[in-house]
Backbone:
């Protein structure tokens, strides 16, 4: 049994600033759960180009509002609190948080993220602040 509190992650190496986002890594590869879990803030007014070629990610929005654009078909998917999107096809996409406020997302990755992938921003390419 393990209990992780956000307050204990803040300001540690598991509190990762990606520029357009800040990811608080609650469960990591080393926890041997088979997935990772992050509490991620997407900063208001940003657009981030993301393409996780080696991971599947489910993202559950719990605060804020924005949209995802899947680049294979230019489809726009509105996202708000209570909406989950699953990148079940390694979808290349743009994630936009609207100007009104930050978005807060619970992100689950399979396979779990390692520190290296996060620090190298593997598959994550910010295009606009
Ligand atoms: C929603 C999303 O994927 N944001 C990018 C950061 C990612 N959640 C991470 O590396 O923790």
Residues:
């Amino acid at each position: 049994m393990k209990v992780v509190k956000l307050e204990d992650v803040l300001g540690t190496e598991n509190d990762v600033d990606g520029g357009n986002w800040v990811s608080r890594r609650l469960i990591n590869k080393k926890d041997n759960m088979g997935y990772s879990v992050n509490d991620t803030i997407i900063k208001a007014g940003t657009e981030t180009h993301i393409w996780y070629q080696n991971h599947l990610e489910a993202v559950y929005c719990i605060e804020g509002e924005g949209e995802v654009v899947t680049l294979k078909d230019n489809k726009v998917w509105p996202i708000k609190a209570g909406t989950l999107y699953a990148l079940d096809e390694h979808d290349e996409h743009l994630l936009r948080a609207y100007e009104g406020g930050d978005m807060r997302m619970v992100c689950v990755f399979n396979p779990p993220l390692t520190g290296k992938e996060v620090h190298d921003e593997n598959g994550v390419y910010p295009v606009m602040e």
